[in-house]
# Entry
Amino acid sequence: MDGNDEGGAGSAPLSGYVVVELSTGIAGAYCTKMLVDAGADVVKVEPPGGDPLRTWSASGARIESGSDGALFAFLAGGKRSVVADPDLEDDLDTVHALLETADAVVWSRESAVAEHPSLRPEQLRQAYPHLTVTAITPFGLDGPWSDRPATEFTVQAWSGGIIGLGRGAPDRAPVHIGGRIGEWLTGATAAAATLASRARTRLTGDGELVDVSMLETEILCLTYHPVSFFDGLDRPFRTERRLTVPGVATAQDGLVALGCGTAQQWFDLCVMVGHPEWIDEESPLSITEQAIKMAPEIRAWIAERSVEEILDFAAALRIPSGPVGNGENVTGIGHYRIRGTFTDNPRGDFVQPVRPYRIEPGALPGSRPSPALGEHTRDRRLRIGTPRPADNGAAGSAGSRSVRPFDGLRVLDMTSFWAGPSCTHVLAMLGADVIHLESASRPDGTRLIAGVPVSEDDWWEKSPIFAALNTGKRSLALDFRTERGREVLRRLIATCDVIVENYTPRVLDQIGLDFGTVRALRPDAILVRMPGFGLDGPWRDNPAFAYVIEDCSGLSWLTGHRDQNPVEPYSVGDPNAGVHALVGLLVALEQRRRTGEGALVEAPMVDAALNIAAEQGIEFSAYGTLLERDGNRGPVAAPQNLYRTEELDEFGRPDCWVAVAVETDEQWSFLRTALGDPGWAADPELGTVEGRRRHHDLLDDQLARWCRSRTADEIVEVLWGAGVPVAKVMQPHRQSEIPQLAHRGFFEELDHPVFGTARYSTMAARFSEGPTDVHVRRAPLLGEHNHEILTELGFDDAEIVALEGDGVLGRTPVW
# Structure
């Protein structure tokens, strides 16, 4: 049992929710795993040979005949397996009978069953209007790129996530984020989208088609709203690549991670390394530029001390820090052991992370074994003809397109920076009334990181990042450190269905706002807490920024070149936490519908990261193999790498690249043809993935030579036209030039009263029942809705004026 498992699946929030899985690969499997973990009945339909994941190991470990790989056992735990040959009429009838009595289906390409013409998403939507049909594809179901070949690696290049936030040393190729990160992120996104669709189905009785794009997922999770930034400030967020300082550094006895996310943390680091004279509040350099300047001395200080000593120093000064996790050490880290973050898989030969959230009170099912191939085929065939149970929660058709999934839901958003606001942002885009709580003395941190000089008028309103994360919300600027402010806060909480916060735990402790207090104010309220490391354990009050979460979970470990220290992704830790917290929140809403009671949802950032990095710990505990970073190579494709083109980039540097990845022998044949069947490619050993992997250096040399004399557009035209997965390594602020995104309306234009018109990303899922226009209004100015919200709470004008006069309410930052 793991987490707060108090009952079987029958008493769980999604008990009775039947999902048919018509997919292969990590994304679909992780989506349905998250549904199983909340109690859903997931029926995995496999071809006679089984899902290829059954025999997969990232390290190449040998899977015994008749056995399943450890990753499959993790992802398929608690599911049921039905075998169906789509070429046999009886088997196809069985699949359709399953769909007739299901509530949802999760679909992806490359499954022999899913590819049957009668089982494609559009056909399923027409044949079964009651179903939520969640389709997961690289680029989306429609548009000019919908049928183009792609891998997670090439999609990551198109997203801008490889160049990302300037990741990697400028004297080498940029590096992708390892571990097939986009598949895990897309799976979590698909789970959240499926549950959002279920919320609307509860209101209307109608199903819909949910179209999830990996490209759009990676844009939202691996880049920092670069198009909005470029439009709003007329410059890119970053113009050059560089290694983070301190980042992952070498101590006396191993690797340690340190970071500076704020000016105060940089000042504290200066003190820690014995150089308080470096502190210069008037410096024209950013804290990043100052750290780079002092990098040799910082690294020398780290090299002279042990990891434990450095972490003790950092904790005392509240500098974000942590050990660097990997498949070998992460399951033994003390904080995780104390919290029970890992558990044995039911089959007993490896360990796995527990679900990324905990619900109290709650009855979530414990870990259950994965099914043998076809284990439940006979049972499910015997059920054919059983009427689909009536959904007592559905109100009947009420014009689905006029109803957003979270219409009527009121949310208090006590979050800042990226992780928390990205969770509540989806609720706002899908209809919830989201009140974003800040204060004049502590505005949302994203207002402060756009590099706008404080000498400019209204500088705090000029952050495109804040504007991009908070469209559709209302702003209340309330100082709840005062007793009068806490009184207002308590009155507000009593009107809210959901409260979401991502402070360190001690903040709510200090103002006495625990779950018991929230429940006394509103018995059916759901309190979602998103601490970095959880509500208990030795790291409970450690500051947590995305990069430290990435370091402590293993996400950094697989990113970078083998001959250098790991490189922090510096992005994914935040939005990944947001989407996992959203799943926990939606599960808690399902539980409230059943019980009428509120709940505490604990969704630590690090638990979300450990789940999408699960393959590392699974591989080591199951097979004794430590997965390693390998530049831009990966465990699936060969060749897979970045190759420089002949152009200079827009900044005048020879830093233009294309990504090429060949996953199948057929794609290798396409590549040979596209290259003109050169003699070196005729070696029969290159005809197999194993042979290509052995000769990867040769392939890299030849492809690098071929690409170096061509432009990126020429390379893409030749290779993509031949059926080879390929991509330009996009600068993030050029995402809006991608025709696929234009076709799908991924960016929407909004006017802002301070910095004018900009384009804003929307969501990675398109819902057939809408909304068509995702952003209902621009992001709010600081305290813009103070009067409106307090009037709703029953305060009169005189009371509101008095609160403004006392500084409890504000509209302008106070330092």
About this structure: DSSP finds 30 helices and 24 strands in the chain.
